[in-house]
Design brief:
Jelly Rolls, 7-stranded antiparallel β-sheet, Pirin_C_dom, Pirin, RmlC-like_jellyroll, mainly beta, nucleus
Length: 357
């Protein structure tokens, strides 16, 4: 279900990884790095029985071996197909945007999905966020991240950063080295009760992301569960984020909680989703799925198929977005701009942070 969304008319509302033409980039508030809350299952009671609950010192491969192929009673089908179109973003970067385009403006709880390609000196210098989460997943290259509170590091190939902007973050994301960088960034909305929480990070190196290889299917479990294996990432807005690679001839049955909005983003190759007799879809297409308890996929081509399967529980609240600020009302957006401009209510440290180029 598409959430009702109100956009303030402005040239800034296109920005993804960053919104760089927003006022004077000041700096941001102190946000505590809090301990990760205990991970909770994303499954409904009806589907929970289809997953193995064995999480001990046993390897993920052993767990997946014990996991039976789930029975999908209400298979989801493809109800909309959107090609991610290229557009300029940040400083000299190019992104392919799917969610966030006019054809798919908002898909509750998801606000935006960009596939970015860039190399130095292009990148995403200082920019703020408030009211949602960003999930940055690096495919190639290295991305240096730094924020106004002193949190910094490098996100490498296969690494993940799950950033809760909450009441406010000012940060930069710039490439390291002279290679081409490729990655994805997903924006996930926060409910009204969580929009002004303290910022927080969850970060996983590639080697620490749970991975299962079974019957021609290779999956990296970024959030949620697959083949009975669960990600340690805590999702404040309940979310499933899976990175699948399917060999030629492989097929997949993956449960998705009923009532959640779900989509597929094809990174490389072509595949058939929903009904086996459906026409194949190929790279950089976003496939919106109908409601149901799971999805089926087939790789009938002669090359590997790589795609993301992402699903989330709808928040069902009004969305007012102005560039990098996503709130529930026009008044809250105006307050966010005032807070950012005058370095208050979460943006206090913006005043003293030296701008990164």
């Amino acid at each position: 279900m598409l959430t009702k969304i109100f956009f303030v008319p402005n040239r800034l509302q296109k920005s993804s990884f960053s919104n760089l033409k927003l006022l004077n980039p000041l700096l941001l508030p102190q946000f505590a790095l809090i301990r990760k809350p205990k991970s909770i299952s994303f499954l409904t009671k009806e589907n929970k029985k289809s997953f193995s609950s064995i999480m001990s010192s046993t390897s993920t491969n052993t767990i997946s071996d014990l996991h039976e192929n789930p029975q999908i009673l209400k298979p989801r089908t493809v109800i909309k197909k959107v090609l991610a179109q290229e557009q300029a973003e940040g400083v000299g970067a190019t992104v392919r945007r799917s969610i966030g385009r006019p054809e798919l403006r908002n898909f509750d709880p998801f606000l935006l999905l960009d596939y970015a390609t860039f190399s130095p000196p292009a990148g995403f210098p200082d920019h703020p966020h408030r009211g949602f989460e960003t999930v940055t997943y690096v495919l190639e290259g290295n991305l240096a991240h730094e924020d106004f509170a002193g949190h910094k590091g490098t996100i490498g190939p296969g690494d993940l950063q799950w950033m809760t902007a909450g009441r406010g973050i000012l940060h930069s994301e710039m490439p390291v080295g002279n290679t081409v960088n490729k990655g994805l960034q997903l924006w996930i909305n926060l409910s009204s009760k969580d929009k002004m929480i303290e910022p927080n990070y969850q970060e996983l190196q590639s080697k620490d992301i749970n991975r299962v290889q079974k019957q021609g299917v290779d999956v990296r479990i970024i959030a949620g569960e697959a083949f009975g294996v669960r990600s340690p990432i805590y999702t404040r807005t309940p979310t499933m984020y899976l990175d699948f690679t399917m060999n030629p001839g492989a097929q997949l049955h993956q449960l998705i909680p009923e009532g959640w909005n779900a989509f597929v983003y094809i990174i490389d190759g072509e595949g058939v989703f929903g009904n086996e007799g459906s026409s194949p879809a190929w790279s950089h297409h976003t496939l919106v799925l109908s409601n149901g308890d799971g999805v089926r996929a087939w790789n009938k081509s002669e090359k590997p198929l790589r795609f993301l399967l992402i699903a989330g529980k709808p928040i069902n609240e009004p969305v007012v977005q102005y560039g990098p600020f996503v709130m529930n009302t026009q008044e809250e957006i105006e307050q966010a701009f005032e807070d950012y401009q005058f370095c208050k209510n979460g943006f206090e440290k913006a005043r003293f942070w030296k701008k990164r180029a």
